[in-house]
Amino acid sequence: MVTIKQKSDTYKSKTNTKAKTKSLNYRLGDLERSHMILWERMSTKEQPTKIPEHIPVLLESTLDLLKPKVGESYLDLTAGYGGHANRFLEITGNFDESVLVDRDDNAIKCLKLLSDKGVRLMNTDFVTASKQLIQEGKTFDIILVDLGVSSPQLDQSERGFSFKNSGPLDMRMDQSQVLSAEMLVNNTSAEELERIITEYGEEPASFAKQIARAIVKNRPLQTTGELANLIQSVYRGRWKKIHPATRTFQAIRIEINSELQLIGDLLPLLPRLLKSGGRVGIISFHSLEDRLIKKYFKNQFESGYEAELLSLTKKPILGSISDVHNPRSRSSKLRGAVKK
Ligand SMILES: C[S@@+](CC[C@H](N)C(=O)[O-])C[C@H]1O[C@@H](n2cnc3c(N)ncnc32)[C@H](O)[C@@H]1O
What we know:
Oligomer: single chain
Bound molecules: S-adenosylmethionine
Number of domains: 2
Distance between the termini: 45 Å
């Protein structure tokens, strides 16, 4: 049986991403400039590694909600490729008291220019980072949590998150973790696979059962393409809006990365990381995430004198295509709170 958070130092990403140029239809801010500088530096030395583009989700709404001011400290618990972080730090100018966290070391490498300016980087999961910061007595004016996977993670086939560009069945956000999608898919019982697909993919039980049985019958599966084709072959009827494998991929990703468990562990730590008057914003991408956040905030807001947080968003702010420039983010929801 494989333990989810077993660590291995031996894993190294083997494949470099092929560089390709894309025209960007958004403002050339610090992030893009820093990517270009990094790209230039890298291309003179070693085999070029593409610095992925990542368009921040709900950027303007997050700025409106959290209202960063000059001199304020910023904690980004899911910094990714720094889209939000660059913009917030551009406004606050407080690099020395700000911290960026991500458990993906590819993302952390791309934040080097910010660390050169004095920002602290933490390459670990956000629960471990939060506990560490609480232990150090650190508090912040602004906290941002932008959940899920980044566009670069999805776009790089070698990361194994996507079935559109087939790659190895991987899906680990933290590449030093032992458990990968391949291990899960090829070693888990049909009953357990069915539970994961039903619970985390919100797939109807009958289809989840068929998928789980097909996986067990056709193992070993090695690539995201093989898994997607297998699910497609089990699916009867016409496709709706999404590929029939979408929910199973979401389910496996959530399981591999312990995503819901970590969100549940993070939420009660947030008030301890905020200064009085400090604001937190959380962006979620599917109902399983949003349900946890909604429930935690509701309990807080209804706790009367004991409440540590007050609501900043009566209703969640929804991502729209015109706001987020990113079709993946249509399902995004932003909720916010302020510390008393
Ligand atoms: C949607 S992206 C964030 C993008 C970022 N806001 C930006 O504008 O570039 C989510 C990031 O959070 C990271 N992540 C997800 N869950 C995490 C966790 N539990 N701890 C630390 N990082 C996490 C992922 O590796 C990914 O880089």
